[in-house]
Amino acid sequence: MQKFTLGDFMIASQSLSNNLPGQRSDLSFVRQATRQLNSTFATAKSLGVLRASSSPVTFKLKGGLTKSDRNDFVQLEIAPGASFSSITNLINVKGGDVKVTSYFQIPGSSPQKVNTSKFTSGKKSQVTNSPFSNSFGISVQLFVQVRSVSPSKDIFYNSRITFTS
Fold it and tell me: Collapsing DSSP states into helix, strand and coil, what is residue 23?
């Protein structure tokens, strides 16, 4: 298993066929990009390209939300032909409740909400989504938004999102 650190994000991959940020030869640009705000779709932190794989691919994310920055967005490009029997998110939240929302975007269109789950502070929770197959013939974007439900509190989260073929 390979592990890559990308700012606040750790990427663990058992597959060598994915073009993940840790496999780029020049990480300085990637590290600099992770220091920028990631509070909107346009400024979402990119985790790279996820291609078809026979091995599970796991992204470990940790972050914090404050009174003035209530949203974190990450973005993952899913290549044509990539399919997953499940996408599982295991999350642990401290300091307040959060909502985690997934969106898919086809080039030229607006992001479309797929699902939203609420996670309670102090509990480790897991959500497994339906199977997904990119049969569009072009890459699509997966966005994950973590939003504070408790705007007056600082919140910290650790999340592990696993894509299983």
Answer: helix
Task: Tell me the one-letter amino acid at 35.
Answer: R
Give yes or no for a contact between 62 and 156, defined as CB atoms under 8 angstroms apart.
yes
Nearest to 154 by CA among 98, 111, 99: 98
Q: Which of 104, 36, 47 lies closest to 74, judged by CA?
A: 47
Confidence band of 152 (pLDDT split at 50, 70, 90)? confident
Kindly report the pTM of this predicted structure.
Answer: 0.78
User: Does residue 12 register a pLDDT over 60?
Assistant: no
Contact status, residue 138 vs residue 107, Cβ threshold 8 Å: yes
What domains can you pick out in the chain, each with its CATH number? Answer: 2-164 (2.60.120.510)
